[in-house]
Amino acid sequence: MSLQPFHLAFPVHDLAAARAFYGRLLGCPEGRSAPEWIDFDLYGHQIVAHLKPGMEPHKADATSNEVDGHDVPVPHFGVVLGWDDWHALAQRLETAGVAFGIPPHIRFPGKAGEQATMFFRDPSGNALEFKAFRDLGQLFAID
């Protein structure tokens, strides 16, 4: 089975801020747009920022679950990148001064599913996780 792109629509409080964050900072090419929404190409997947008038940015103290000693925000979304692409993105975000909810690190070191991961929020407070595996075969590995 070939992997198909996913589609995710999510709320934002400011389309200009979303365009700067997803387009310029994350480097997502922009697709179609209208006054109320913008399509972005997130590593081959379609994400759509929808303007929600009157929305306040989400607070960082939203629901979380403990995973490997960190409070992982719920909900969140992101992409599994190649190892080198993940490190390049982490460096770009660190250089840009992005505030990480969970800084770039290796999760589950030496165990099944070992991965590089980082969490941060967009300007509307939506939580994102980007991760990578040295061995993509570990994506669904269990102990």
TrEMBL record:
CDD domains: VOC_like (cd08357). Residues 4-133 form the VOC domain. It comes from the Bacteria. SUPFAM superfamilies: Glyoxalase/Bleomycin resistance protein/Dihydroxybiphenyl dioxygenase. PROSITE patterns: VOC. This is Glyoxalase. It comes from Sphingomonas oleivorans.
